[in-house]
Amino acid sequence: MIEADRRRAPGVPEFEQLYRDSRDDLYAYVAGLMKNRAAAEDVTALAFERALRKWDRFDPGRGTARGWLFGIARNASLDELRKRRRETELDFDPPDERSHRSGQADDERFEAVSTALSRLPAAEREIVALKFFSGLNNTEIAEATGISPSNVGTRVHRVVTRLRANLEEDSRHGK
Amino acid sequence: MANDQRPLDPAEERELKALEAGLAGKPVDADLADFAQLACDLKATRPQPNELYAAELDQAVADGFPPDWSAGEARPPRPGRLTRLASRIGFGRQWFAPVTTGLAGLLVVVVAAGIAFSDGQSNSGIDNAANPQTAGGTADLMQTGAGAGAVPESAVVERYSATARSVGEAARTSGITPVVAGSQDREVARSVRITLATPPEDLQETSNRIIEVSDSYNGIVMRSSVSGGEADGEARFSLMIPSAQAEAAVAELSSVADLRSRTQRSLDITAPTLSAQERLRTARARLVSLVTELSEATTTGERQSVGRKINGTRQVISWLTRDLERLERQVSLTPVSVAVETDNKTGSDGGWDISDAIDDAGRLLAVSAGVAVVALAVAIPIGLMVLIALAINRAWLRRSRERALRDE
């Protein structure tokens, strides 16, 4: 059995479905957390590769596939952040032009939100990425991050509150 | 994060629901419209993968991430966790094989040393490697071996050469009755145990023969007993054989019936013998001195005092003399214990039958169980250490990840 066939043993169609459903969401989460496009691409690919390798160990009884996948991606992202922090500072990319055009907000609003978002600490930015970029529900966020589902809502609210405060502050200062 | 534990109040719950509604594109109350708008704005800032990358990733997933897969630029294969850790501490892959081999060898040496140490402890800690004469003196009797058809067991020779104190200690702790055989320069006490097997019907004849052999070598039968029926009879003899003839007597006793085992122990008692002799000389010299002192005593008090000292010294001389005689007896006479056992196996044609098979199976199981216990004794601590190390590593990794998120 060649390597590729071995890797594509039973359950791979389900994984491919998970991949199709989650590819952009996962990338959005990782990019939102990493704030660097190249790093996000590497980590996203690595997360899917790890997930495929561990797919036969995934236990649906212990949670959703998306929560499990995002947990893998989270670990890969944080490992990458640790590594890059040791080796070099991570360069932050400017906001994605594609996403700019795909949103409903105008340029000014988009810039304001992006700026306010970038001022959030990574832990809060992660919540935004999981909730608003990737569209995970609270249960999936809890599975991915290891916090309790009841606390997810609290954190989301707190992050949004801070984000609104940032926006108002930026607005007052004419940013 | 203490705020995380605080439940949301009703107003906050409404705001959260407005966010969810905004994400889902559902209408919200007018006073919460800005929450819904913010949710939409956040969603609009969602990063998107570029099309080329997405296409490459699609293909990689379809191919099952082949080893040579790379996104955009060539990516070296990701090393394993152990390799990454090793390289982080400057430990190259080329060292893996020799170091792991060395560690395995070290483990084997440690285990072997532990077993050897354990064996040494079980032999009363006696070390006589530095006593070639004793070793040589016992070598002949070591060459016992078992007769054909017998079940041989290891002959044990205990040799000892040390100070008087350690010899005495060894004699007390070994539980053996030392006897016989002196060599030219050393005083060596030996004891022999012989186990013979004979058909039940030959038990009495074998017992008689043992007595005859003992008599022929001027031996003394200290104790003897013959008991049991045909199936499970046994006879036991405690003999004292003059050490000069012990070797020949033991050889002849071993041939009276099938030899099952023969065990000899030797004890070098040169040091305690010399010590007893020296103390005896000293005591006698003191006695002579005290007698002279007594003759020169002028008062009754002096005479009484010296007289008491003389009595005490005589008592010491008596003790030392008995002690020396006991040591000399240990050298001049060798205690030989002979046990004669009977069983149906011996009474049969000597072939290997089902009961032999059961016995052999039992022994095999016992040995296997022993090996398993030793293996577990080694494996369990190592396994526990590995598990602890893995748990520590896991906890450290989790903390460092959370720290990376917190410090970002």
| Percent helix of chain A | over 70%
Task: Please work out how many helical segments of chain B DSSP would assign.
Answer: 13
Strand content of chain B: 5-15%
What amount of the residues of chain A lies in strands? under 5%
The ordered H/E elements of chain B are HHHHHHHEHEEHEHHEHH
Dominant shape of chain A? globular
The biggest beta sheet of chain A is recorded as: none
Strand order of the largest sheet of chain B: 2-3-5-1-4
Roughly what is the average pLDDT of chain A, rounded to an integer? 81
What ranges of chain B have pLDDT less than 50 throughout 5 or more consecutive residues? Answer: 72-76, 119-183
Radius of gyration of chain A, CA atoms, in whole angstroms: 17 Å
**Total strands of chain B:** 5
Q: Helical region count of chain A?
A: 9
Describe this structure in words.
The complex is a heterodimer of chains A (175) and B (408). Chain A is built from nine helices and no strands. Chain A has helices at residues 3-7, 12-34, 37-53, 65-87, 97-102, 107-118, 122-133, 138-145, 149-172. In chain B, helix 1 packs across helix 2 (33-44) and helix 10 (270-296) runs antiparallel to helix 11. Chain B starts with 9 loop residues before the first helix and ends with a helix. Chain B is an alpha+beta fold and 408 residues long. In chain B, strands 2-3-5-1-4 form a five-stranded mixed beta sheet.
What topology emerges from the helices and strands here?
The complex is a heterodimer of chains A (175) and B (408).
Chain A: H1 3-7, H2 12-34, H3 37-53, H4 65-87, H5 97-102, H6 107-118, H7 122-133, H8 138-145, H9 149-172
Chain B: H1 10-24, H2 33-44, H3 51-62, H4 81-88, H5 96-122, H6 132-142, H7 164-174, E1 188-198, H8 203-216, E2 220-227, E3 234-242, H9 243-254, E4 258-268, H10 270-296, H11 300-332, E5 333-342, H12 344-347, H13 354-407
Parallel strand pairs in B: 1-5
Antiparallel strand pairs in B: 1-4, 2-3, 3-5
Helix pairs in contact in B: 1-2, 7-10, 10-11
